[in-house]
């Protein structure tokens, strides 16, 4: 128990660092248990890991705060943030995350029991144990954080309730979208701009969002009641406006609408369908056996564009591959920003059609495939495009941003589109998806090293997966989660040589629904978050070791 741990640490003081290993195992404290899961071999190695469990009686949170999966995730998200704040610069570390409330290993609430997972840099003086410091961290600070952060009796109860209610509302709002025929919703009063590219907090003094009257939708939420905002209908939505008027800021907010944001973020009521994928050009990426033929008909090299592979894609082929991969993985909405798109894949205007004959141009621009994609695959698109008017021909609605204010300019855009430009469409169908069968040898099963380099890259065993082009990743814990989930799928035989990419994702999603974070890693030693299946697919598609053994339609 706790006294035994104190004595043990005192006895260890000054002993050689390796003796810390004997801490492994379970220690009973009044009110909680501490499990020391992994002990670092030396003071410079990655931190040691431990797990704290507080029973539901001791934690004491009312059942309404954890009785559904979303409430349990929200409560855990609140507790881990309080614990993080409380720990400050202690040598105990907890991975609380940022503005998004993710399902993460660092804190879980299961039937009222609170599980907190921490890292601890076990203190040493050179190669010897500093038992006094270790005693302070484990026997004083840890019980303190349990007492002040993980118990209802000492909690700021009003704020806990607010946090859980807010996250539940966001989740409920997102779930209502399909029934309303919407792919996204931006509440009146939402605050979209961030302080900077590296500071995700809301921009102080920003202009709050306000919906154009014609697009205003009102929805009923379980806790806040009725709220109004801009509904983005299924179909093709064009966002136009002058440079610096807030187009990309709106699109970024939609990208992160797949997540639930903490109260005060400004994006609590900005949501999009869970199956939303940001598409961008990403030259240099690997593409493996993707049917890019809807976009690329023939290549000067003679490569088969219906079964296209490269280790170094161009801007246009990388974006074409990203679109086809997203559809294959089950995306229902695509988000595209002109700032990060390949121009030659986006547009080909009347004059260029006149000058360069169709059979001398391998690319079919997105403008001609955006409607077929919707017709054949029920995939909607929101597109930021301030530089070309050709998309007015294909847009269902056009939103203009002017000094950060949104206006519905659909009617005017229709009038303009009625005047012919002489441009001819170059496609009228989007072919069925060819589903790729994943070869199990794509992913190592021998417990390879999994490590996140920020949100930019994943180290998986000997190889590195570049993730810079996967822009909806927000937290390194998700990147770790992707690596662990891939390995878990491989180890449990989900990659059995018969499943397609979409079927692997389905199996993973079903496993998460059943087992929660254990579907990602059942050892729970490191910090990770449950990744979105679509981001798992994005990583799989960028894996240098990915092998596709065949196709199914
Ligand atoms: P665009 O894509 O239209 O060129 P951006 O979305 O990049 O414009 O926005 C330009 C600048 O305006 C950014 O610095 C952004 O932070 C700021 N901004 C965007 N929306 C708002 C807003 N609602 N209130 C205040 N500043 C904003
Ligand atoms: Mg922009």
Question: What would your notes on this structure say?
Answer:
The structure is a single chain. With 553 residues, the chain is α+β, with helices and mostly antiparallel strands. The chain folds into three domains: 2-155, no CATH class; 276-418, no CATH class; 435-552, no CATH class. 31% of the residues lie in helices and 23% in strands. The strands form eight sheets. Strands 1, 2, 3, 4, 5 and 6 form a six-stranded antiparallel sheet that branches. β10 and β11 form a beta hairpin. α1 runs antiparallel to α4 (131-149) and α12 (476-491) packs across α14 (533-542). The chain is globular and about 85 Å long. The termini are far apart. The model has no long low-confidence stretch (mean pLDDT 96). The protein binds adenosine-5'-diphosphate and magnesium ion (MG).
Average pLDDT:
96
Shape descriptor reads: globular
Number of helical regions: 14
Strand-residue proportion? 15-25%
Give the radius of gyration: 26 Å
Uncertain stretches of 5 or more adjacent residues: none
* SS-derived structural category: alpha+beta
What's the β-strand tally? Answer: 27
Total domain units: 3
Helix content: 25-40%
Distance between the termini: 60 Å
Sheet with the most strands, sense and barrel status: 6 strands, antiparallel
The hetero compounds bound to this protein are: adenosine-5'-diphosphate, magnesium ion
